[in-house]
Design brief:
Radius of gyration: 39 Å
Number of domains: 2
Order of helices and strands: HHHHHHHH
Distance between the termini: 69 Å
Oligomer: single chain
Number of strands: 0
Length: 191
């Protein structure tokens, strides 16, 4: 059982007993006065000892709570560090030779124009939204792509970015042959 709960209960019981005994002593007069004083002193000493134990228990509790908060903060920082390390180590290397073999032309890394339907002006719009890599485009939702197009005005309404994130993902993952075959079936980036 938890001493932080037991100690106040014991203090209460001892105080009640002490009150009862003092009442009995006063009602019975001065007989056994020395014995009663000794008992009273013993009880007061026990109460003081129990109160000291209760204070020590409360201090220990506060210390443990403080240590728990520190541990939680350190764990949160460790998760952030682990996440940043994981994201930097999972980069897929760009293979320019494989891209050239699939498309028959030189491909620059993170050139968004490799995605069918994206030209230089649309690529510039994406760059304005800090979407500058195939990976970033692959992680963008179709709604985000639509928002990028709307930022360019009415002339970009005809474009349908439904396949753009998927195409960008294939480029990021280096699946050049699969991307080239799929683009042969697309019509201006539309399925």
């Amino acid at each position: 059982m938890n001493w932080c709960i037991i100690i106040p209960i014991l203090v209460g019981l001892i105080s009640a007993l002490l009150g009862y005994l003092l009442g009995r002593l006063n009602s019975s007069g001065d007989k056994n006065n020395n014995d009663d004083l000794t008992l009273e002193l013993e009880l007061r000493n026990k109460i003081a000892h129990l109160e000291a134990s209760l204070n020590a228990c409360n201090k220990s509790k506060l210390s443990l709570e403080s240590n728990l908060e520190i541990a939680k903060k350190e764990a949160a920082n460790a998760k952030i560090t682990a996440a940043s390390l994981t994201s930097t180590t999972t980069e897929i290397p760009f293979d320019a030779a494989a891209a050239k073999a699939a498309f028959g032309k030189k491909i620059k890394q993170n050139d968004l124009k490799i995605v069918e339907g994206i030209g230089p002006k649309i690529e510039g719009l994406f760059h304005n939204f800090n979407i500058k890599t195939w990976k970033a485009l692959s992680e963008a939702s179709i709604e985000k792509c639509q928002e990028v197009l709307q930022s360019g005005g009415d002339r970009y309404r005809i474009h349908k970015p439904d396949t753009w994130p998927e195409q960008a993902k294939l480029a990021y993952e280096g699946k050049w042959k699969q991307l080239a075959e799929w683009q042969d079936k697309l019509d201006g980036g539309k399925a």
